Structures are given as C-alpha cells and as structure tokens.
Amino acid sequence: MKTVSDQAIILSAMDYREADRIVTLFCRDLGKISALARGARRSRKRFGGALELFARLNVTLALKDNLSALGDCDIVTVHPRIRADFTAIAHASYACELAAALIPEHLPNQRLFRLLSAYLEHLDSGTAKPADRHFFEMNLLNILGYRPPLESCSGCGANLVDTGCLWNVDRCLCRDCAKGLPGERLGPAAVALLLTSLQTGRFGAASFSDVAGSEAGQFLDRFIGDLLPKPLKSLHFLRLSP
Question: How far is CA 12 from the centre of its chain?
Fold first, then answer.
C-alpha cells in the first residue's frame, strides 16, 4: 500500500456506517480519488471541520484500487465567505458536483485543478455571477475534451459568431441549416461570449447581457445534460439562487 501526500479539493462527502465518512477528493497530482475517513463522525479531533464540501486541504492518502484511506489532513482554506452566502454556496456546490460527475477516476489534471481552485477562490472573494459559471463550464468542457463546436456550422461551415446557432443532438447549426429543427438557440452575442470564455485566462473578463446570459445558460445546461447519466442535484439548487 503506497502512502502519498497531495493537495485536494473535496467534491463530495457522505456518511458511512456508524462513525466513518467517504469523501471524493480532486487531488492536484493524483486526480479524482474516493477515500474513507475512519472515525470522522465519532471524533472531531482528528479531522476537525476539514471534511466539508469544496474545502481545500493538504492530505495524506494510503492508496488502494477502489477506496483509499484518508490519513492526516490540514486545512488550506474552507472558503468561509462562500459559506456565508446562499448564492455562492449554490455555485460552488454545482461546480464540485459537475467536476465529480465528469472527471475520470485517477487521471491527474493539474490544469483542471487550477481552474476549479480559481473558481472557488473567485466565489470566495466576490459576488457569484452566471457569467463566471459559464466561464467555468466552458473551460471545464474544453479541458476534458468536450468543447462545444461553436466556431462553425456542422452543416455548411458558416461562422456561428456571425449567424448564431442552434444546438441539435450533437451539432451546432447556423440559422439556414437549422430551419425547422428543435434545439437550444444561441444568438451571435452569446456564441461570441462563450468563445471569449475560452480565450481569456481570468474570471470576469466575459460580461453577458441578460438575453445572451439566458441563452448561454440554457445551451450549456442542455449540452452538459447530454453528457451526464442523470441530472445534477445541485442544478435545481442553483436555479433557486438569485
């Protein structure tokens, strides 16, 4: 059994048996790992308040094929300002559940770890905005190889920044190719802003109007939903937030 140290973000946590907890960790160097925290519910002394959703920790793990064992852990941050704001909690919970659903087990991805860390830090330092959520979603999809094909029409190759598009099954189609088809429609402004989210390296750089933001949100909900076996519980919570 190999014992390693790493930095990790808690993506999910659940009670197990009478005294334990199972946590899903996204580790900087090791990737996504499920780990058993023995005695976490019986004694606060060992883990304290560390095993909370979206906390960032320094951890020691005894690695196993299925369920690793969580040893020592030290808190880097629990993102206290997120926990004091309902909307920020909703956005952070969604980001962690989405990451947990899409990230493969045991596949290191430091770029994605930096993206999630930066989003949580951004939420901890200011107002949670839909545009920042869309920035996170687009970059997450891009890093994992699920980038929406928004540059050109899947049918004729037209520039979708000029025409807008319709998402139909697994294709982004221009106005002409999409005639009569159902799907999520995006105007040119929404297409341009979603692509801008991939071209800038910081949160807050892409500002969506109400119309473009609504279109982008509906499109990404549909696009991401098609990738998942079941809806995310946190998405309903997110829609209840202001």
Answer: 12
